[in-house]
User: Which sequence fits this backbone?
């Protein structure tokens, strides 16, 4: 087991409905030493890639992306979910359905922060059905920018997102891939 898998086994909680709760270290309280190791690992895995920007989605992706960005020395742009915020100028939008909340959100990135010159690493906390990633990829494509790779903390390998993204030809680096989990026993199996 790697460092993230060990942390998931120690502090993750398997909930009913195929939900893995990791709010004590990943997406509510945040373990910055762990984020730092994750950033270090992605830096290794994307060695040689010409990355000048990290793109993520609010809210849970932001902390992880910011710590990872310190290893890449690049800025972070996050896609915003609300429509009512103060965004000036033109923007790229995509529709994203939430696995957890079962609702649809428009995600938005201002055009001035993503251009055809950008070589983007997409970072997020979870990959389940891949809706969030598809939305982010759509936005990068609309900008004429290049997706250099995708870094995910926890991929739920029993849902279709990972296969779909890999079949599209992207380098997808998930630091922990959960292939099976059981909420009655709490057991988690990794790939
Ligand atoms: P997808 O769009 O790939 O279906 O789901 C990705 C998003 O759903 C992630 O950004 C994450 O916020 C949320 N998510 C999906 N599955 C889980 C889960 O098992 N646990 C938690 N905590 N979040 C999840």
Assistant:
């Amino acid at each position: 087991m790697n460092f993230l898998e060990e942390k998931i086994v120690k502090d993750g909680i398997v909930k009913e409905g195929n939900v893995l709760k990791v709010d004590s270290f990943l997406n509510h309280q945040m373990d910055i030493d762990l984020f730092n190791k994750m950033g270090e690992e992605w830096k290794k895995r994307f060695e040689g890639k010409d990355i000048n920007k990290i793109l993520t989605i609010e809210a849970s992706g932001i902390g992880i992306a910011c710590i990872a960005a310190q290893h890449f020395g690049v800025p972070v742009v996050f896609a915003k979910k609300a429509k009512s915020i103060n965004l000036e100028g033109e923007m790229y939008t995509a529709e994203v359905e939430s696995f957890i909340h079962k609702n649809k959100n428009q995600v938005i990135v201002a055009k001035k922060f993503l251009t055809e010159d950008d070589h983007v690493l997409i970072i997020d906390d979870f990959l389940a059905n891949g809706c969030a990633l598809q939305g982010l990829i759509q936005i990068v494509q609309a900008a004429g920018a290049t997706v250099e790779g995708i870094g995910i903390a926890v991929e739920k390998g029993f849902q279709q997102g990972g296969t779909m993204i890999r079949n599209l030809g992207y380098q997808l680096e998930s630091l922990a891939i959960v292939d099976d989990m059981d909420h009655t026993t709490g057991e988690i199996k990794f790939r």
